[in-house]
Amino acid sequence: MGNLKLHIPGPVEVSEKTYRAFCTPMIGHRSQDFKDLYGEIQPQLQKLFYTEQLVFLSSSSAWGVMEGSLRNLVSKKVLCCMCGAFSDKWLDVAKRCGKEADALRVDWGSPILPNQIDEKLATGEFDAITLVHNETSTGVMNPLEDIMALKKKYPDVMFIVDSVTSCSAVKIEFDRLGIDVLLTGSQKALALPPGFGVFAVSPAALEKAATLNDRGYYFDFLEFQKNAEKNMTPSTPSIGHIYALRSKLEDIFSEGLENRYQRHAQLSALTREWAAKNEFTLFPESGYESQTLTCINNGARSGGRVVDVAQLQKNVKEQGILIDGGYGKVKGTTFRLSNMGDETEETMQALYTALDKGLAQL
Ligand SMILES: *Cc1c(COP(=O)(O)O)cnc(C)c1O
Fold this sequence. Notes:
single chain, 13 helices, alpha/beta, Aspartate Aminotransferase, domain 2
């Protein structure tokens, strides 16, 4: 089988240009060349995150930074907002880090709403919350702006936000919203090879981290800050990823951030139109649909025809395209189509054509 075009919600398709950048010959990580490289992309990363803070580079996948956030910032108890597989997992990770943790659970497909968080935080038990902005397993995009309005009411609570499938595809203004940690991974919205993380930390979060003495080393936020001030990382980073990131930032800023947001919004709308045209309903609650991936019911829920997702996936794969057959407990009853990264109207139309043919073959 040749290369499959990836329309799964991560890893997503990586461009030739990005791969070429990834393969740039190595340099020493304490060299001036490295400092110049990090120094060159730092202002662009700050623009991407809408922050004046230094943006950090982690040679780990997103989960490393997610675990690190808990270790750096939770001293009392963390509230884990759970609405799908990735957000659900965070509770488990918190407990494995030895943290006191409690769940705010909603049904898969539903968003996390501000009043639900407010009610929990009002108990005064919590000093941190974890939130996944775009829940990749359900295709739900949580109302981040409304949720972040709570920061004013609870200034001492650390708001930790995962934007792995939204950062750079949807506008997220770190400073203005008052986010304490905003993290993303490489292989989804950023369309880089997997295994790398990018994140920003608020001054308040750095202060809080300084009061915790079991932060560990690899994900110690203070180490990241100290090193980033010199355009370095605490340990030897994945330098190939940083070259790839530089190349991707070139792409992002030559397209323009607003155009990039608009493109993702438009392409996800096209996917929803395709679904409606084929009489499929969407898994997410109306009004909270993701702009980077679409989670579609196979019909079992809507009472109409029931599509064999595994067979559809196979039929589409035979045409050279990989789609996802549902994640966790909605595997087989939903399928997910990604429009993250470099997708265009043309590449999305090719996906819909393959899906139409795949459906006709069922
Ligand atoms: C994929 C994903 C992660 C985990 O990323 P890894 O690269 O596996 O660490 C975390 N959060 C969300 C929302 C994701 O989609």
